[in-house]
Amino acid sequence: MADAATTRSTQRPGRPARPGRPAQISRERIVDAAFAAGNLDSLTMRELATRLGVTHGALYRWVKNRDQLFDLINEVMVERVLPAEGPQGDQWRPWLARVAWAMHDQFLAVPGYATRTSRPHRHSTAFDRLRQEVVTAFTDAGVAPELAEQSWYIFITSLVSWLSVQENPLNLGHTAPRFELFLGTLLRGLPAREPGEERG
Q1: How far apart, in Å, do the first and last CA atoms of the chain sit?
Q2: Using one digit for the tens of pLDDT, what is the confidence trace for 64-111?
Q3: What are the backbone angles phi and psi of residue 70, rounded to the nearest 5°?
Q4: How many CA atoms lie within 13 A of 180 on its CB side?
Q5: Could you tell me if 107 and 127 are in contact, meaning their C-beta atoms sit under 8 angstroms apart?
Q6: What local confidence, expressed as pLDDT, does residue 89 receive?
Q7: Residue 109 CA from chain centroid, whole number
Q8: Model pTM?
Q9: C-alpha span between 55 and 78 (Å, rounded)
Q10: For the chain, N or C: smaller number of CB within 10 Å?
Q11: Phi/psi at 55 (nearest 5 deg)?
Q12: Is the peptide bond before 195 cis (omega within 30 degrees of 0)?
């Protein structure tokens, strides 16, 4: 009898059943919904809330704007592309190649992400972790700190630009660009050296 009474009090004839508990939001659910949106670069906050099955106001309590949304996304991306262990001594090239291939696979798996990352935008602290790991790889191999920072800048800007072009082809020739050739050329040129300095 108690069950019937409960049913009558919450579900009256002619009215739809009241919804259950509201959808729970988490960092992982937000990022997964954003990744599944089709084109991250054009995703709006209202579209994201709809995908999550929550109100815009509920999403706002987690992320207030697209900058904060991309901060969350960047955190996840950095976690996915960084190997669990850093390079040992002079093994920075194969380690950096692993990072670059992971960025290639992860960035291009989410349409619009490489394009958004390549544009000037508010600095995200998530990439500080990636920067620190790469700079440390160079300094541990004997590169001077200032040139290690320059090497990071060359690596990240070249790589993100190349990935962005893959999302927005320039049609500069008949042969599809090959990532392994680009990456090999980039890594052979690193670390940065002062003009006139002999290659080690």
Answers
A1: 85
A2: 998 899 999 999 999 999 999 989 878 999 999 999 999 999 999 999
A3: -70, -25
A4: 0
A5: no
A6: 78
A7: 10
A8: 0.81
A9: 29
A10: N
A11: -75, 160
A12: no
